[in-house]
Amino acid sequence: MDIKTLRIVRYAASGLIAVFAFAFLAVGLGWLQSGRPPADVLPTGGPVVGAFELVDQGNRPVSERDMRGRPAVVFFGFTYCPDVCPTTLAMLTANLGFMGQQADRLGIFFVTVDPERDTPELLAKYLSPFDPRIRGLTGAPNQIAALAKSLGVYFGRSEIEGGGYTMDHTASVILLDAQGRFSATIAYGENSDTALAKLRLLAGG
Amino acid sequence: MNVLLRAAVFSLCSAVVTLSASGCSSREGGLRIIDPWTRATPLGASVGAGYMTIANGGAKPVRLISADSVVAERVEIHAMSMEGGVMRMRPLSDGLDVPAGGEVELKPSGMHLMMIGMKRPLIEGETVAIVLVFDGGVRLEAKLSVEGIGGTHGH
């Protein structure tokens, strides 16, 4: 390497170090946190499921108590969702099928982020091709927001030009242990065998 | 997908594509729809997503401006993105450009044809038609094969 190349390498290295140092400081001081944590950086420690009152697709009440006492699998979505929601529900259904009775130890929840459109009746229809152990939750928007916030899940409404709206939402499946604490997540598109291993681990032996 | 497989899919699919303007199955140097597919929809689902590759063998870029299907009240061209684990979906209101001599791929987690207001559920194993309308008035009918609800089309 000649002197010029060496100098370029040295400048590039100093630049990289500066960038990393800034990023480290920024994350440490919370500068880069913009109100919502990314789905793969979830808080750990104590119970996280906050108080909420919703209903399932059979109009039965569901509260935070139903997400404690046994491990829970929680996924946020909506029926007006052509890709992530049906494929994630299908992935869960296939894996719950592989698990058989082992999956009875889990509480499995599909929480709508679009209660305006997703009534219990619509959720009942929508969920009918999937594993019957999946409970579809809907109800008051503030209750859904409280549950999402406690789990670090983001969702937001986005108006469509010319009418209508769609919902942006965290696409990961959240796994909670029997004390309502974070255990793991299953990312959208994650290998199905890995997802099954995580679900089995969550359900326990 | 390797080249051979792609070529095989290409020739298979050209057979089911009709160019309604001329009535022939494909046109040298023209537009082609490759490997169109969708998923079965749950009973209460109001939406579905159609995927395919649109190839433009012509010397000029073309723009997909709208689409239409008898199974849905309307069909929109949408883009989906995933940022920090958050799924976002937006309509492409200006349409979708297919470059001259190039192609665009509509696929899960990317762009799709969003069927809105499903008039009936889509059933695994059937085929459903979506008519694509390009600028200049060219219309192409894509026949989408319907996979299972969790279908990934081998991806």
Short description:
The complex is a heterodimer of chains A (205) and B (155). By secondary structure, chain A is α/β, with parallel strands linked by helices. Chain A has helices at 3-29, 84-99, 120-127, 141-150, 192-203; strands spanning 53-55, 61-63, 72-77, 107-112, 134-137, 155-159, 165-170, 173-176, 182-186.
Characterize the structure shown:
- The complex is a heterodimer of chains A (205) and B (155).
- Chain A has 205 residues and is α/β, with parallel strands linked by helices.
- Chain A contains 5 helices and 9 strands.
- Chain A has helices at 3-29, 84-99, 120-127, 141-150, 192-203, and strands at 53-55, 61-63, 72-77, 107-112, 134-137, 155-159, 165-170, 173-176, 182-186.
- In chain A, the strands form 3 sheets. A 5-stranded mixed sheet of chain A has the order 5-4-3-8-9.
- By secondary structure, chain B is mainly β.
- Chain B has one helix at residues 3-14; strands at 18-19, 31-39, 47-56, 62-68, 72-83, 86-91, 96-98, 103-106, 111-118, 127-134, 139-147.
- In chain B, strands 1, 2, 3, 4, 5, 6, 7, 8, 9, 10 and 11 form an 11-stranded mixed sheet that branches.
- In chain B, β10 and β11 form a beta hairpin.
- Chain B is globular and about 45 Å long.
- β7 of chain A pairs antiparallel with β6 of chain B, so a sheet runs across the interface.
